[in-house]
Amino acid sequence: MSFEEMWAALLPVGRDPGTGGYHRFAWTPPELECRAWFLDEARRRDLDVERDRNGNLFAWWRPGGARDGAVLTGSHLDSVPGGGAYDGPLGVVSAFAAIDLLRERGVRPGRPIGVAAFAEEEGARFGVACLGSRLLTGAIAPDRARGLRDRDGRAFGDVLAAHDLDPDRIGPDEDLLGRVSCYVELHVEQGRALTAPVGVASAIVPHGRWRFGFAGEGNHAGTTRLEDRRDPMLPFARMVLAARDAAERHGAFTTVGRVEVTPNGVNAIPSAVTAWLDGRGPADDLVRRTVAEVHEAARDAAREHGVAVELAEESYSPVVDFDTALRDRLAGALGGVPVLPTGAGHDAGILAARLPTAMLFVRNPTGVSHAPAEHAEPADCLAGVEALTAVLKNLACG
Ligand code: GLV
Ligand code: MN
Ligand code: MN
């Protein structure tokens, strides 16, 4: 299967025919179809398949039976709600295509090369991004992970059990980590910063997710006097505007992309509003200050309207500066490609706490991501595969 054939096989999976957006949430049918595709591609190539205790998938090429010092590549197969085709799958498809090129060219690496598909990278189902790699590296406590719930109230632990994974065995996997020498993730670039076909990542900016819960009093839209209302929608609205203002003041990014209203009726004052704030910025203290100011504005507005407000941090990822030696080695193997930071989170950022990690970016001409317009030109995708091939050769043969 060529890059184009693999890409074409994945393209319809989980795609909304109306919007063109992808809905591939961890352990839902479209994502399971992507997993089945991964296993087929691995077996087609005679790679050793491994599903780890945390539900991450690996396909290992072990020339001569080599087991240790593996060079790991890959990405993820799940998506955000209504996401683009490239975020995640481009790295996995490119990884298989790069192994094909190495074999076609008669390269026989001394180290194993692994292709990874990390579970629940987007956190679209259970709320914590990079859940699979966080569990693998010990960045999230197994107890907390087991209790995470999806929008239908299903616990992560129960979903794992339904797919033959033992929820009591999730958590750090030193055996697996000990077999890997480095991780290189190829990813579509998610803004307009990359003007060459391929680039190398320097850093991931700090980012996190916070949940605001506003609790008021449900009541009738027509009979409740304005002065008698305890409407949680009002402090919520103030919180959204405060988030934008704070981001502008601190040079940060804030987004409120998800909100749940209870009971969500046109003619009922809501009893509760839950909203998620995504906050990112150039430095940890700026992100922290931004969120603190949003919280303060939400508290002031809630007090004014007789509403209770609660804030919970669901995840936080400090700044990641990718391993300089590995980054320089990639840039050297590729000969003068741009080196750039990103505002997007990645498993490579989580794994960086345990291993040297690096990222290759493929140009995105629309600059759009997490939306259907996300794109990479076929020629740039193939340039990405060539770059990854050169990098894997350099790392696994050197
Ligand atoms: C994942 O892509 C994120 O940056 O949230
Ligand atoms: Mn993403
Ligand atoms: Mn991604």
From TrEMBL:
InterPro entries assigned: Amidase_Cbmase (IPR010158), Bact_exopeptidase_dim_dom (IPR036264), Peptidase_M20 (IPR002933)
Gene3D superfamilies: 3.30.70.360, Zn peptidases (3.40.630.10)
Top-level division of the source organism's lineage: Bacteria
Swiss-Prot/TrEMBL keywords: Hydrolase
Protein family (similarity comment): Belongs to the peptidase M20 family.
Protein name: Allantoate amidohydrolase
Source lineage: Bacteria, Bacillati, Actinomycetota, Actinomycetes, Streptosporangiales
